[in-house]
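hi!! sorry for the late reply, been swamped w classes. u asked for the two structures so here they r. pasted raw, havent cleaned anything up. first the sequence of the first protein and right below it the tokens
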Amino acid sequence: MCQSWQANVLIWHIGIRRLLCWTGFFDEFLFFIGCDTTNIDDFRAYIEMALGEEWEINIIDTTSIVYLPAGLQHCPINVKKVDKPFWFGHIMLSNMISYSHS
């Protein structure tokens, strides 16, 4: 079992090429939000996130909330560029943490 904070810490390192792919047994939301509290849409980062068994690359370059239904493989998340800090977090719709990784 992976502690959620460990996965969060790993993705902050720019240039990490490959992390484990996770499949959650519950719905999850990931959020990427600009840190300027007067304008949370001021998002100055470029992130690639792989989704699905084929690891389809999705680009995040604006303030975003990503819905991940139960059973969807996700990660790695590669932070390619950061010009301004941003908030990353996740909400897991479960009363327990349980992942399958490959």
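now the second protein. again sequence first, tokens right under
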Amino acid sequence: MTLGRWLLAFGFGCLVVVVLTHIAEEFNLFPVMGWGLPESPGHCIDLISAVLGTVLLIAALLWGFIGDGPDESQPPLSAALVCRSNTKLFRRPRRQRSGGRFRNSVTLLSRSMVAG
């Protein structure tokens, strides 16, 4: 895993902790933590997790734009477009010439009438 993915994972983990602290506060789980009271351990966990999660997610976003560079496991976009354009899904159907498939039979019939 790259550094950007680690930052993203820890950032989401911190935000999960924020959600869990709010659930614990609502259902009054672990009352020793003093949920909702200023300067209580529960408030500190909630605040630190929210700030750290936000900072880590922003860092992961920035790292994805400037840090890793192109992903070597994926082909470049131009190569992917060339490969996909050669598939049957992206081919345009061939246009038939004027007269369609009966053109040759009409021509043969008219020639046989003139010759006969």
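hope this helps!! also noticed smth abt the second:
DSSP finds four helices and no strands in the chain.
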